[in-house]
Amino acid sequence: MLRNSSRWLWHGVFAAILAVLVFAVYQSSQKINYNWQWERITPFLVDTSPQEIRASGSGTAVINADNSITINFDYGDEPQLITTYDERLVEDGDLIFEGDLIARSEQWTMGPLVVGLWVTIEISVISLFFAIILGLITGLMRISHNPVTKNFAYLYVEVIRGTPLLVQIFIVYFFLGTIFDLDRFAAGIVALSIFTGAYIAEIIRSGIQSIPPGQMEAARSLGMSYPKAMVYVILPQAFKRTLPPMAGQLITLIKDSSLVSVISITDLTKAGREVISGSFATFEVWFVVAGLYLLLTTTLSWGVQRIEKRLATSD
């Protein structure tokens, strides 16, 4: 064990090295002659621009007693009623033409980067759910004594782990998507679930096989059936041992989900590309996108560490 003084000394060394790295990155950024404009990123995270309310036709403005605005159209169409706004730009009796700005309303809405982040979380969580089910079934098939199920599981794992995820996404979207009429979002979930399920299957297989055979023998000697012994004795112990690699696979899944942008799913990565095409703030956007991915994975890692500590104290 390091003494407190030595521990603080090494923390200081780490902070110094980190400061040198940050300074080196800063110096490198000065050499590329790039005009950093971080303030342009804010609207793409949280959009605070006022919502413009425009006339849907030509007519006359009427200011009601409750300050609501009524536009009486010239050709007898149903009037346009505006009840909620923050800034009024017309007066009673003003002539209004179609498309004229009538009022503004203050609003806070999620920017495209936050919307893309939510899509990334959604597709990752759904894919993980199906990947765990697929991985559990395949992992049990891998340790089965039935040659048919064992060989099918082995073939699935080897084919999926031996081919790139990007290729699998294209195959699922253009081939399976055409056969089963899958939309982009469903195709992305299927591809990620199949890919991640192969890795989870191996994690579960190794976790089960790491449990001493005597555990199963003891459970069977107490009168438990094989499935019951697996559910109540083997799998709970295997879960504790496989939690760290399972968490690592989930983090990998979140990062791999960026590849679904190639089939036009507007996740965080695709949202970043769209923002860059409109703002030309290339470096700022990619740094923010990387930071959002890092925030997501770091939060997940922290949560898994908390679960590990809980499980450790329950032994």
From TrEMBL:
PROSITE patterns linked: ABC_TM1
Membrane association type: Multi-pass membrane protein
Domain ABC transmembrane type-1: 117-304
Cellular compartments annotated: Cell inner membrane; Cell membrane
Transmembrane region(s): 7-26, 115-141, 153-176, 182-201, 285-304
Keywords: Amino-acid transport, Cell membrane, Membrane, Transmembrane, Transmembrane helix, Transport
GO CC term (a single one): ATP-binding cassette (ABC) transporter complex
Gene3D superfamilies: MetI-like
Chief location category: membrane
GO BP annotations, alphabetical order: amino acid transport
GO MF term list: transmembrane transporter activity
Pfam families xrefs: BPD_transp_1
Top-level taxonomic group: Bacteria
Function noted in UniProt: Part of the binding-protein-dependent transport system for glutamine; probably responsible for the translocation of the substrate across the membrane.
NCBIfam families, alphabetized: HEQRo_perm_3TM
Family statement drawn from the similarity comment of this UniProt entry: Belongs to the binding-protein-dependent transport system permease family. HisMQ subfamily.
Listed name of the protein: Putative glutamine transport system permease protein GlnP
